[in-house]
Amino acid sequence: MAEAIQKKLQSELEKYQQLQKDVSKSMSARQKLEAQLTENNIVKEELALLDSQNTVYKLIGPVLVKQDLDEAKATVSKRLEYINGEIQRYETLLKEMERKSEQHREVLSSLQQEYQRAQGQAVGKV
Amino acid sequence: MASLHDQMAATGKVKPSKDLSQGVERLKEEHKKVVKDCRSQIEHWKKVENDYESLQDRLRTLPDKLSYDIMVPFGPLAFMPGKLVHTNELTVLLGDNWFAKCSAKQADALVEHRKKHVNNTLDDLQKVMKNFQNRADFTDDLEKLTGDTGDFADIREEVINEEVVTKGKHRLAHKPNSKPKQEYLLKLEEEKEKNESEEERATGVLSEEELWARLDELERQEELQDKRYRLDSTDTNGEDTTSSSEEEKEADGGSDVQVNGHQKENGWVPSSITSQMNGTNGSHPEDDEEEEDCDEEAGNGLPTIYFSHTAEFKKVRINTGKNTTLKFSERKEQKVQAKRKKQSGKSNGHSPHESYKIKSPADIYRVFVDLVNGEPIPRKSILKSRSRENSVCSDTSESSTADFEERRAAFGRSWSHDDATHSDTSDGITEEESPTGTSPRTNGRFEAFTGTVIEKDPLPCSIPHLTIAPPALPTIPERKLEEVGPEAPQEPPKRMSKFKATRLHQK
Fold first, then answer.
1. Which range scores top for mean pLDDT: B121-130, B142-151, B155-164, B495-504?
2. Residue B422 and which of A10, B81, B317, B484 are 20 to 30 A apart at CA?
3. Regarding predicted confidence, which is higher, B61 or B232?
4. What is the pLDDT confidence band of residue B503, given thresholds at 50, 70 and 90?
5. Position B417 pLDDT exceeds 80
6. What is the pTM of this model?
7. Closest CA to B506 of B409, B402, B415
8. Are the Cβ atoms of B95 and A50 closer than 8 angstroms?
9. In Å, what is the CA distance from B115 to each residue of A33, B122, B162, B210, B417?
10. Of A26-35, B38-47, B126-135, B416-425, which gets the smallest average pLDDT?
11. Residue B323: left (phi > 0), alpha (psi -120 to 50), or beta?
């Protein structure tokens, strides 16, 4: 009895840990996205400061590719949109994961109690 | 975590505080960490800001010259002498791999823009740092507040004194079923024994037969005394007429007592029955008390007790409206103590003995005991009507009203006795009597009714009252008594208020 519960507990714990890992991963991803957002925002603002005389380059791999300013602006705003979308996605993902981890925690605590009881019983029997 | 839990459970009390202190410790640590982080970030951003400052300086001075001789970094180790040309042509990394070729002036604007951002970030960081510092301070304060133990101090109730310090004893509610203190009982008994030397040396409770025998004897004595007394002083209480009628009534009272004796044999009859049998007072089947009541009733409706100032220790004259004198046994007297108390002015030689027993109001309760199955039990309330309880003690309420009226009567209004009597016990009888009973005097004076009104169940005990003649016709009542007496019991008991009775009577 106690062993079965222990096994279950173990598996649950592993799941829980995995989940926690995922949570932290998406958290860091989100943070990265946040940073990118601010960066792109700055880029956008600075692009706005430039005028048509200025040439704008995009570093793609090892080379700088010349870009049109308006094109660059459009690209940046698109990128911003994308980043915002990503952030939203991660937000929901995080919420979901939070909920799941909560559930897991409950299961874990109940399992733990059961396990303890089982152990106590075993001791009592002995 | 589980292990921690176990530990806590195992060691119980001490742990939580430790845990708490640990928690506080950790919180402080976290706060410190956050503040530290903020500090380092601020440092970083400050540096960035400084960099931008210098960059701005450079940018502003760069286009001043067409070319600069500089040492060009050549890998990580070497520098090469070189020349910086195109001093007004810059490629700026905007971020996210975006580059822009711009003039120094534009670059300067860009730098300015970036500096704004940097300043914003710095401000934010400062705010965060401040916030966390405050929090840390607060936790520090909290810890100090809670003391060295780290326990909560704000809600700490330590009951040091289990016993509340009060003056004297706690006052306890009079418990209905608790027995009176044994000492008091003993005292009572002792008293009895002393006084009733000629009586059976009964222990606390006499057997019923004995009691009744004694009561009968006492009644006989009373009657005798009563007659004697009346010869002596007819007008103590009123006119001759009344007294004569009273005597008649006394005789009746005797019979009445017998009736009562009946009841007595019944012993502890449920109060409802007894009350029916026993007239106005709704008296109790028990003991002497009852007798007294009955006597009073028999005498008239004014159950007042007068105590004669004779040398005889045991004789208590109960002066009902008709000057009935009753001789009471010691027991009775004891029980009547309360009554006597009320009649403060008329207290007889027993008062010292009274005072001996009753020293404080609380002691009254000890005197007021119920006899249930021979066990003395304190009464719930001495103010309650006895009719509901089997009490040994005299009913204070009843008697008090009677006293009141008696006193009132004593103030020179002899007529009022009868009046009161009628009203007191008024039943169907009153109606009968009212036509005959009309007296000129009453018509003469209408007075506002001042007595206490007590509604009572009409009882057979009241029969003798019927016989009470109107004051003007002293002799008639005797006959009447004979006539009416037998009839009366068959009459359906009628309730009538004193008011009504008085009114009827005065018609």
1. B121-130
2. B317
3. B61
4. confident
5. no
6. 0.40
7. B415
8. no
9. 22, 10, 71, 118, 115
10. B416-425
11. left
Picking from B229, B398, B399, B192, the residue whose alpha carbon sits closest to that of residue B326 is B229
Mean pLDDT lowest among B149-163, B214-228, B271-285: B271-285
For chain A, give the longest Cα–Cα distance: 89
Is 3.40.50.620 the CATH number for B18-146? Answer: no
Q: Which string of b and e fits B119-129 if b means at least 16 CB within 10 Å?
A: eebbeebeebb
Question: In 3-state terms, what secondary structure has residue B320?
Answer: coil
Q: Which helix (H) or strand (E) holds B478?
A: helix B476-490
The full DSSP string for B165-203 is P-SSSPP----TTSPPPHHHHHHHHHHHHHH-SSS----
Picking from A9-13, A36-40, B467-471, which range would have the lowest pLDDT averaged per residue?
A: B467-471
Give strand pairing partners of B370. B377, B391
Burial of B174 (0-12, 13-18, 19+ CB in 10 A): middle
CB within 8 A of B81, min separation 6: which ones? B69, B70, B71, B72
Q: Is B98 in contact with A45 (Cβ distance < 8 A)?
A: no
Neighbouring residues of B13: CB distance < 8 A, sequence distance ≥ 6: none
Task: Give me the total of CB pairs closer than 8 Å, taking one residue from chain A and one from chain B.
Answer: 61
> How many other CB atoms are there within 10 angstroms of residue B478's CB atom?
18
Any chain A CB within 8 A of the CB of B100? yes
- Count of alpha carbons within 13 angstroms of residue B291, beta-carbon side: 31
For residue B472, what are the contacts with CB-CB under 8 A and spacing of at least 6? B241, B439, B440, B441
Cβ(B330)–Cβ(B196) under 8 Å? yes
Within chain A, how many helices (H) and strands (E) appear?
2, 2
- Tell how strand B98-102 and strand B68-74 pair up: unpaired
Q: Which residues in chain B have their CB less than 8 angstroms from residue A54's CB?
A: 100-102, 106
For residue B447, name the pLDDT band (cuts at 50, 70, 90): low
Partner-chain contact A58 B117, CB within 8 Å = no
Q: Do B97 and A45 touch (CB under 8 A)?
A: no
> What CATH fold (topology level) applies to the domain A1-121?
Helix Hairpins (1.10.287)
The total number of residues written for chain A in this structure: 126
Chain position carrying tokens 């020349």: B83
Alpha carbon distance B144, B442 (integer Å): 90
- Write the CB contacts of B185 (distance below 8 Å, at least 6 apart in sequence): B204, B376
Q: CB of A77 within 8 Å of any CB in chain B?
A: no
Q: How many residues does chain B have?
A: 507
Residue A33 burial by CB count (10 A; 0-12/13-18/19+): exposed, middle or buried? buried
Tell me whether 0.95 is exceeded by the ipTM: no
The answer to whether the CB of B378 falls within 8 A of the CB of B180 is yes
Backbone angles phi, psi at B291, to 5 degrees: -55, -45
For A41, nearest residue in chain B (alpha carbons): B95
